[in-house]
Amino acid sequence: MTRVFRRSQFTASALLALLAATAARAETFESDYTSLQDCAPAPHLKLPSRTIEQGAFRCDGVAGYSVYVVDDDPRSFLVVERGDKLYSLEKPMVGAFAPGDFPNVVGAKKAEWRLDASGKAVGLIVRVSYLRKESGGAASALMAFDLRGAAPALIGVAGANEEARLLVDNAAGSVGAARIKR
Known about the structure:
Layout: H1 2-25, E1 30-35, E2 40-41, E3 45-46, E4 51-52, E5 56-60, E6 65-72, E7 75-82, E8 85-88, H2 90-95, E9 110-115, E10 121-131, E11 138-146, E12 153-158, H3 161-171
Antiparallel strand pairs: 1-9, 2-5, 3-4, 5-6, 6-7, 7-8, 9-10, 10-11, 11-12
């Protein structure tokens, strides 16, 4: 009898875990978009590692966020502002590319913000252009960032909008390293 109880207790626990996981995935997300073009010049941007005196532009965000486009020739990257804190995305944005690919967000027209049902921003998706060092050809990729943690973190890189949205929507706080696939 003890064996039967343990088995049904295990089955009930597994069923509850499955239902909880299904409910978590059933959460709905929506997108809001903000422009990364014609943004206001920022006089200087003080990051923990350095101060950028020129080439930074502050763009509106959503749900308490702003985003800066930093044109640090020949590369460019984003800085996310939440409240009074700045989070540089330089390392994950540049690090996802092979040396010599020169990632660039200056030409990106908009940022896609993934919002949960309460309107809270949970993710950021942005298109990054780059040059392939070995072929010299232009390419682009969508970088998906998780905004649910203490600091924005790269979730992954996608080739299509829906794939990038799924990366954010399914992240649920789990973040892994990503590199551009050739």
